[in-house]
Automatic annotation (TrEMBL):
GO terms for biological process: proteasome-mediated ubiquitin-dependent protein catabolic process; protein polyubiquitination. It comes from the Eukaryota. PANTHER family: E3 UBIQUITIN-PROTEIN LIGASE NHLRC1-RELATED, TRIPARTITE MOTIF-CONTAINING PROTEIN 3. Keywords: Repeat. The gene is NHLRC4. InterPro entries: 6-blade_b-propeller_TolB-like, NHL_repeat, TRIM-NHL_E3_ligases. It comes from Tursiops truncatus (Atlantic bottle-nosed dolphin). This is NHL-repeat-containing protein 4. One of its GO terms (molecular function) is ubiquitin protein ligase activity.
Length: 123
């Protein structure tokens, strides 16, 4: 995949594709053949500060850590974005989710991996 300007973080996207965050930009989704599909900002109208870590949950929703806005947001298909966590985050960089519903956020400011037991109740 050539021609990406400022790729920052990459994670698995929905349906075997990729999700790529761009520093001070947006998050782009690519299909399984690595073709560009859309940006989450254009698709949902969401304004990112500085998107960092990205992952996809078992339902195919994309989860993004935004280091500038100090929050983690869920982007479910065909629904508005949902802020999962904002309180207590200082510099969220990495994000991962487990099939049982746990959300893990790497907070670089305080050096902790913060584990939230069930983000699925917000979805």
């Amino acid at each position: 995949m050539l021609g990406l300007e400022g790729p920052c973080w990459v994670g698995l996207g929905p349906d075997g594709g990729l999700a790529v965050s761009k520093e001070f930009g947006d998050v782009w989704l690519f299909g399984s053949a690595r073709q560009p599909l859309c940006s989450l900002g254009d698709l949902t109208g969401h304004h990112f500060g500085s998107p960092a870590g990205v992952c996809t949950d078992a339902a195919g929703s994309v989860i993004v850590a935004d280091e500038q806005r100090h929050q983690v947001t869920l982007f479910p298909w065909a629904r508005a974005p949902i802020c999962l966590v904002s309180e207590g985050l200082r510099w969220p960089l990495g994000v991962a989710c487990a099939p049982q519903g746990q959300l893990m956020v790497a907070d670089a400011e305080d050096g902790y991996i913060k584990v939230y037991q069930s983000y699925l109740e917000f979805a």
